[in-house]
Amino acid sequence: MFLGSQTIHGKAHGLIVNADDWGRTQRDTDQILPCLRSGVLSSTSGMVFMEDSERAARIARENNMDVGLHLNFTTPFSSPDVPSKLLEAQNRLSRFLRSSKLAQVLFHPALSGAFRYVLQEQICEFERLYGIAPKRIDGHHHMHLCANVLWGNLLPVGTIVRRSFSFSPGEKNALNRMYRRWLDRQIERHHPVTDYFFSIEPVGKAEHLSKVIDLAETSLVELETHPVNIDEFRFLTGGEFSRRLGSVRIWPYYFAVKR
Known about the structure:
Layout: E1 7-8, E2 11-12, E3 14-22, H1 26-38, E4 43-46, H2 53-62, E5 67-71, H3 84-97, H4 112-130, E6 136-139, H5 147-151, E7 160-161, H6 174-188, E8 196-199, H7 206-216, E9 220-225, H8 230-237, H9 240-245
Parallel strand pairs: 3-4, 3-9, 4-5, 5-6, 6-7, 8-9
Antiparallel strand pairs: 1-2
Helix pairs in contact: 3-4
């Protein structure tokens, strides 16, 4: 079985390649779709209340695609049918989260209700579009990790959640790495996660990709991509990415483990 071929002493390993922003625009969707069909992606993360959300969900249902919810607190909802109350609430959150680099780590008690409302509405809309509750949640601009979401315990328990970026000593300062370790511990208390999480950027950089591949030999690693970026699209579909992987297999779907 495929699963057995990617376990070491019962521990799953390999690469989960996920594309963000499914449904954000028609171009986002159309750039992700051939990557999914070619097998260089395991899954994608879908946005709701956006201009292409309806069409993207229909394509995903028809093709049995693995789609998680890409929570969005920062980019204005672009669907013409979004209730004005929801637009206003999301705009308030966006203004706060974009106000400074520290906003993501600060708990804003006056916005607690707005965060809960905007998050729940996106979960409900995902259920309407895809016919099921999201089994996996990550965030646009990684704002699913903001203090109001985590401290407010807003993510459904048991749902797979994307961890924070993985960095080695020297890549970020010690305080940054400590904060990320704390974030990961909070997530792991209630949610399955992968062992590591990286972005595909910088695209094609040998040292970066070699590190990801080496870890995937013995661990479960998620690699984030945005195929709407033409450099990423060409790297994923042109054959070079697959050649670089060597013996490392790409999982055909997204999963994670509970610690």
